[in-house]
Each structure stands twice: as structure tokens, then as C-alpha cells.
Design brief:
Elements (H helix, E strand, L loop, with lengths): L4 H11 L6 H19 L6 H4 L1 H4 L2 H12 L17 H17 L20 H15 L5 H16 L3 H5 L6 E2 L8 E5 L12 E5 L2 H18 L15 E6 L5 E4 L7 H14 L1 H4 L6 H16 L1
Helix pairs in contact: 1-2, 2-6, 5-6, 7-8, 7-10, 8-10, 8-11, 8-13
């Protein structure tokens, strides 16, 4: 891809955005790649190559969005072709552009963008069945992966935390009283899509289910931590993996078990557990976010 001054300026602008989560950073990277591809194929005005303001003006972005939503700027083929992008992807693209425009002092786009189609959430009866299943699981033998997943699910149900918020939880966030440990957790909310600044932390009580799950997870976590350098993060890896980078000799950099589990790792473990454990698979929705929204809906209903 040619190096255009507007893209260099865009990189500087995006790098300085505050409070951006990992998922939103990936979406911003997608938009940046698509804009570069559109410029390279002369699909946007020539002036947009030189000026970031011209790149982000509504006329330029109108052309870009039509092209991007058609699938023509896809980075990879899907089934040997480039189909139109999905409504959620279109919405993410629209949100990313508005983030960049806001940082540049421009108003929100007067363009479409639409509203993403949200997947259905489990009903309250299904959440109750999930809690009962997790409680039964804790009474028996569990593999390390099942112990961690059970604890993650229990805390998600209690705190209604997004995956990024769960990944940021620390052992030091847990609280206790004089009679029992793990009575609650301090949770710091992140705005949707990882935009803006995190809110102040709030103290949330933990259920008997979460406390029992933590009683199983924390000793296992301590054992895993003996292989690593130490972290206060609540969720850590179960086995040795690699950092995704190669050294000068082309070898992968290995990391021991007990390393902090990032948001992608939590989401991957959720998907794997849903597929691996049949009884949980019947109760868990495909996406962790669906479970979080169901827990949030149940919490709101209980306050009415």
C-alpha cells in the first residue's frame, strides 16, 4: 500500500484515542486497512490522500462506506468471494469513523450505519437452569478448564460484566467480611464498544454460587501462578502457550501457565466450553455477550 500523508495522520490520531478497548482497536484497524485499500484503488478523491480532514469528510466517507459495505474492500475472501459485510460490521465501521471524526473536531456522520441486529438472549428460566447446573458441577470432580469456566460464568451472572471487564478483574478486587471470603467484588465498568472513559468502580455482592466457584478456582490459580512471574489478574492461563511472536531464530516465544488471560482468551474459553461440555452447551448462548445481556435484563427486572 502506498504511504499517504492522510493515513499517517490517521495513525497518529487513532493511537492517541483514550479509553479504547481491544475489540474496538481491532475494528479501527479494519477501517484503516479499508481506507488504505480504497485510496490505493483511486476510489476516493485525490485530496483525501494528502489531508486527514478531507479523508474524513462526509463526501469521502459516503463513497468509502458504500464500497466497504459491498464487501469490495474485504481483507480476506469468504468462500472464494467478497460478500457484503454484515449489519454489525457496518455499525462498527460507522462507530469507528465517528470516533475519528470526533477526535478531529468534526460532527457525527449524517450517514446510515443502521442498528446492529442483536442476537436473542436466554430467558430467566434458562439462567436459573444454568445456575443449577453450575452448582451441581461444583459438587463433583472438575477439570481445571471446567473449574475456571464455572467461576467465570458464575461471576458473569452476578456482575453482568462484559468480556473486557472480566479480563480486567483482579484478586485484589475481591472483598471479604469477618465470617466468609469473597463476599463481593469491585467492578469497573467500560462503556460499550470500549469507547470513552471507564466509570468509577462499584461494589457488587457475590452469590453463594460465585463464592463456591472461587473456592475451587483460587487454589488452582495459586498453583498455576507458581509457574509464572506473578500477577494480580483473577483469570490466568491453564497451560503453556506462546506469545504469538518469533525470536531472531524463528522460534516461538513460550509463556508458562499462570499468565494473565486476555479478553480473547476468555471469549475463546467460553466458546470451547460451550462446545466441549454438552450439558452446558444446551444452556449457554453462542456469544458470551448474549449471556451478559440476559443477566443484565434479569437484574433490571428484579429492581422494578
Amino acid at each position: 500500500m502506498p504511504g499517504y500523508p492522510s493515513l499517517t495522520a490517521l495513525d497518529t490520531l487513532l493511537a492517541a484515542l483514550p479509553g479504547i478497548g481491544e475489540a474496538r482497536r481491532r475494528q479501527l484497524g479494519m477501517v484503516r486497512r479499508e481506507l488504505a485499500a480504497a485510496l490505493a484503488r483511486d476510489a476516493l478523491p485525490v485530496a483525501a490522500r494528502r489531508s486527514l480532514r478531507r479523508l474524513l469528510e462526509t463526501g469521502t466517507l459516503d463513497s468509502y462506506l458504500r464500497l466497504a459495505e459491498s464487501g469490495a474492500l474485504r481483507h480476506r475472501l469468504v468462500g472464494g468471494r467478497r460478500p457484503p459485510t454484515s449489519p454489525p460490521t457496518n455499525q462498527a465501521r460507522y462507530d469507528c469513523l465517528n470516533l475519528a471524526r470526533q477526535a478531529l473536531g468534526l460532527p457525527r456522520l449524517p450517514l446510515g450505519g443502521g442498528t446492529p441486529i442483536l442476537r436473542p438472549t436466554p430467558e430467566s428460566g434458562q439462567l436459573a437452569a444454568l445456575r443449577r447446573q453450575l452448582d451441581r458441577d461444583l459438587a463433583g470432580h472438575l477439570s481445571p478448564g471446567r473449574i475456571r469456566l464455572t467461576a467465570v460464568l458464575a461471576l458473569l451472572l452476578d456482575t453482568r460484566s462484559r468480556s473486557g471487564e472480566l479480563a480486567g478483574q483482579r484478586v485484589t478486587h475481591l472483598t471479604a467480611d469477618q465470617t466468609r471470603p469473597h463476599t463481593g467484588i469491585h467492578s469497573r465498568r467500560q462503556p460499550q464498544h470500549g469507547t470513552g472513559v471507564a466509570t468509577e468502580s462499584e461494589w457488587l455482592p457475590l452469590s453463594d454460587l460465585s463464592r463456591a466457584a472461587l473456592d475451587r478456582w483460587l487454589p488452582l490459580r495459586a498453583d498455576l501462578m507458581s509457574h509464572a512471574h506473578g500477577t494480580t489478574r483473577l483469570w490466568v492461563s491453564l497451560r503453556m502457550n506462546h506469545a504469538g511472536t518469533l525470536d531472531d531464530d524463528g522460534r516461538a516465544t513460550l509463556r508458562p501457565a499462570g499468565m494473565p488471560l486476555e479478553e480473547n482468551g476468555l471469549v475463546t474459553s467460553y466458546r470451547a466450553g460451550r462446545s466441549r461440555y454438552e450439558e452446558l452447551g444446551r444452556l449457554l448462548p453462542p456469544k458470551m455477550e448474549q449471556l451478559r445481556r440476559a443477566a443484565e435484563d434479569q437484574h433490571v427486572a428484579s429492581q422494578l
